[in-house]
């Protein structure tokens, strides 16, 4: 039982990005997600999207997707989204390990 308690409280905090138009998480970290990277101080890491949503990044004036980086305004689509598609109005980045991170 103590091992279970360590698993749930000794790990990093499980983080989930949610939105009012999405039933469930837009993306979330896993319980064993201990990743640390050079950019962790610059943006919030939210993990991979669940199977019920697709994440797209729309170019904005400030953020443009290029061959080397995927950045833009987060758009979510799928059966868990009210109306089929929702614009979250926040900027995000797809990291090299295919996880979503919010930009400042």
Characterize the structure shown.
9% of the residues lie in helices and 36% in strands. By secondary structure, the chain is mainly beta. It has a single domain, classed as Luciferase, domain 3 (Roll). The strands form two sheets. The protein has a five-stranded antiparallel β-sheet, with no helix packed on it. A two-stranded antiparallel sheet has the order 1-2. The longest helix has 9 residues, at 2-10. The protein is globular. The mean pLDDT is 79.
Topology (elements, then pairings):
Layout: H1 2-10, E1 16-18, E2 25-28, E3 44-47, E4 54-58, E5 70-77, E6 85-94, E7 100-102
Antiparallel strand pairs: 1-2, 3-7, 4-5, 5-6, 6-7
Q: CA-to-CA gap between the ends?
A: 40 Å
Summed up, the domain count is: 1
Content-based structural category:
mainly beta
Taken from the alpha-carbon principal axes, the silhouette is: globular
Give a brief description.
This protein is 9% helix and 36% strand.
Give descriptors for this structure:
single chain; 5-stranded antiparallel beta sheet; two-stranded antiparallel ribbon; Luciferase, domain 3; mainly beta; 104 residues
């Amino acid at each position: 039982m103590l091992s279970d308690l360590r698993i749930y409280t000794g790990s990093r905090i499980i983080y989930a990005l949610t939105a009012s138009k999405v039933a469930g998480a837009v993306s979330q970290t896993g319980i064993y997600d201990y990743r640390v990277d050079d950019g962790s101080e610059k943006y919030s890491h939210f993990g991979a999207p669940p199977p019920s949503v697709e994440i797209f990044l729309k170019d904005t004036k400030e953020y443009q997707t290029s061959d080397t980086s995927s950045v833009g305004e987060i758009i979510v689509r799928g059966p868990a989204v009210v109306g089929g598609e929702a614009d979250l109005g926040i900027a995000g980045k797809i990291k090299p390990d295919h996880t979503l991170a919010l930009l400042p």
